[in-house]
Design goal:
InterPro entries: DUF2752
Order of helices and strands: HHHHHH
Shape: globular
Strand content: under 5%
Largest sheet: none
Mean pLDDT: 90
Keywords: Membrane, Transmembrane, Transmembrane helix
Number of strands: 0
Protein name: DUF2752 domain-containing protein
Low-confidence stretches: none
Oligomer: single chain
Organism: Nonomuraea soli
Number of domains: 1
Pfam family, one: DUF2752
């Protein structure tokens, strides 16, 4: 094994590990239905406030995607379903950068702040009466 191959192998460990852990989590949630009471704890934010956080419905959305029920996934957490392709593309960029020996740069601050803004707006709007369709 050459030094370049060893270096690439080490660089690929982190993105490969993230992919393996994500796949294991998706398989687990796909097999252990979060729609059945008692399998998972209640969202702490919802438990304390009675309001939905941006992550409420995520386990049920992942279960829907894992069982190929996109309609159920969208009804539980549409933001997550929309973000999955973005996260997969970002992971692919990370894997490509690791393979080529480059460092993956973070998105520009404007992109990060825009995402945070979308998250906050989603958090507020999904708790308003006219947007009940966003509630899990």
């Amino acid at each position: 094994m050459t030094a370049l191959q060893a270096s690439r192998g080490r660089a690929l460990l982190a993105p490969a590990g993230v992919a393996a852990a994500t796949l294991a989590g998706v398989v687990f949630v796909g097999m252990v239905d979060p729609n059945e009471p008692g399998h998972y704890p209640v969202c702490p934010f919802y438990w304390v406030t009675g309001l939905y956080c941006p992550g409420c419905g995520t386990l049920r959305a992942v279960h829907g995607m894992a069982t190929f029920d996109l309609g159920a996934a969208m009804s539980m957490n549409p933001l997550l379903v929309v973000m999955v392709p973005v996260l997969v593309l970002w992971w692919a960029r990370w894997m490509t950068a690791a393979w080529s020996g480059r460092r993956l740069s973070l998105p520009r601050p404007a992109v990060i702040w825009s995402f945070i803004g979308v998250l906050v707006v989603y958090w507020v709007v999904r708790n308003l009466p006219f947007a009940a369709f966003l509630a899990p």
